[in-house]
Design goal:
This protein is of the alpha/beta class. It contains eleven helices and 19 strands.
Length: about 375
């Protein structure tokens, strides 16, 4: 079987193995990645040059492969936004602030082209991000050990996204946030089809049938409606970084009976992602205005994605590996149609039942709650 690889030194390739702790610490809170995803170097690093189909890209052979088509079931939306006015101002917003600047050459043009294709406003909020980061850092407590301050700074850096959203949101009707480490791989799909104007926030969440992972969010992509309630939720979430975090006394800081979000008695491990979960768990009215969708609607996580998926997100990996994967995706996908130029099982292993879930119809609309 002809397979792909990222170019590198002789006899060096990337493999997927189990590395739960790394991915969890990096921000992947959902089981279908943490239980199966890992990328490790075999004797060296990943080169930054373009991918060639003559080279090899290996997955762990102990993982099962897909069938020849490499597909697994996915129920798509009906293709139409619900209750969205024709003149609604919708903007695609991203930022390369902090340590994400190296991703600009890989994903900026892709996001800009997708926005142009679907007549979305495109906002590069990097300058806003850099301006607001020092303000967010002001809330880091004094007197921490050096390692604690370093870890807390990484967490607080993620909170800057919330400050950016609060500044940009008033200028649009709907804001589509896209993390820097993601690509739009199917320009034939308009992201507006996932907008449901009955809600203020539409966010991807882990498989609902999993007692361990359900309701755990990933904020790599968000759809936000410009309403006072949305802005209030963002403000409440951002304010959590200033508050003590106590796993023993506060049940809203522990999810599904095991995942605690406190970091050195501050909120939150995984930054704004966990903080949004806490804010929603404390606000029933906010949950009623929030729509959960599956990851594969508009936040598919490499390597668990399928041909035709709108977005593939590559979080939680070292820069060289992440950059290599993004190049691989660009070089093997026709972004105009979402068609992949190789057989899908050459690009990712077969997911387990947990991995294949995350389908929108599995989440009841407006009827959900966190399990602590």
């Amino acid at each position: 079987v002809k397979v792909l690889s990222l170019p590198g030194h002789a006899h060096r390739a990337m493999t997927i193995q189990r590395r739960c702790c790394l991915l969890l610490a990096a921000g992947l809170m959902f089981g279908f990645l943490i239980t199966a995803l890992s990328i490790a170097r075999q004797g060296g690093g990943v080169a930054h040059n373009d991918v060639s189909t003559r080279e090899t890209f290996h997955f762990n052979p102990s993982l099962p492969t897909m069938n020849e088509r490499g597909d697994f079931p996915l129920k798509k939306m009906d293709g139409k936004a619900k209750n969205l006015s024709k003149d609604a101002r919708v903007a695609l917003v991203t930022s390369y602030g902090g340590s994400a600047e190296y991703l600009r050459e890989l994903t900026f043009a892709n996001k800009q082209a997708y926005a142009h294709r679907h007549n979305l406003s495109f906002i590069d909020a990097t300058a806003i991000h850099e301006r607001l980061t020092p303000v967010v850092f002001e809330n880091i407590p004094v007197g921490l050990a050096e390692n604690e301050e370093t870890e807390l700074k990484e967490s607080f850096r993620l909170f800057t996204k919330l400050a950016v959203l609060l500044e940009v949101l008033p200028s649009v009707d709907w804001l589509v946030w896209s993390d820097a480490d993601a690509l739009f791989l199917n320009f034939s799909t308009d992201i507006r089809q996932f907008i449901d104007a009955r809600f203020d926030l539409i966010v991807p969440a882990a498989p609902p049938h999993s007692a361990k992972w359900r309701f755990m969010l990933n904020t790599g992509h968000l759809l936000l409606r410009n309403t006072p309630e949305t802005r209030s939720l963002l403000e409440q979430t951002l304010a959590l970084q200033q508050q003590p975090c106590d796993l023993q006394r506060d049940p809203s800081t522990r999810f599904n009976g095991w995942f605690g979000v406190c970091l050195f008695r501050r909120c939150c491990l995984l930054g704004e992602q966990s903080a949004l979960m806490v804010a929603l768990s404390r606000c029933a009215a906010c949950r009623a205005r929030t729509r959960l969708v599956g990851f594969r609607d508009f936040n598919s996580i490499f390597p668990y994605w399928g041909e035709g998926d709108l977005v593939v997100h590559v979080p939680g990996l070292p820069p060289a590996e992440r950059a290599g994967i993004l190049r691989l995706l660009l070089n093997t996908t026709d972004v105009a149609t979402g068609r992949v130029r190789v057989r899908m099982h050459e690009l990712r292993p077969e997911p387990s039942a947990d991995h294949a879930a995350g389908l929108t119809p599995l989440y009841p609309v407006g009827e959900w709650d966190f399990v602590h």
